[in-house]
Hints:
By secondary structure, this protein is an alpha+beta fold. It has 2 domains: 1-30; 39-164, PAS domain (Beta-Lactamase). The chain has 4 helices and 6 strands. A hairpin with a 6-residue loop joins strand 4 and strand 5. It is globular.
Amino acid sequence: MTNRLISVVCGSALILAICASFLLSANSAYSLSSPPTSDPAKRIHTLVHRAAELVVIKGKEAFSEFRQRGSEWFSGDTYIFAYAPDGTVVVNPAFPAREGHAYHGEKDKKGKAFHDEIIRTAQTKGSGWVDYWLPKPGQTEPSQKWSYVKAVKAEGVAVVGAGFFPE
């Protein structure tokens, strides 16, 4: 009887472990790793806070500065982006065709509705990191990207962010 009880307990523990593993892997699209602490991450954090301050002071007039290629705001794979309160992309110098459109529900290659997550993070936490998969500017294959986003209170602008590709 004791051996049977041990077998049942071990079997139950194994089933629980398998279920937990499945649930964690199913959620991996939503949390691929912990927020970054690297030097590029620190630079992005500082850049976004400075951009948010500029948007609060200048409003949408700051966007022309954000669109200048080779500037501190748009260099290489790094660029400032912003969303309106309704989720419309109002500035994205790397992908300007996306401006003027809302992308609620658009999912990355891992199934994350990343635009919604960016907006939700800014609205609920004030600021924070969001990871998702997106092609680098000029490429078509998605790569993991970490973006730091910050809520702002400026006319027509609710979220400012920037990101980096850790690879």
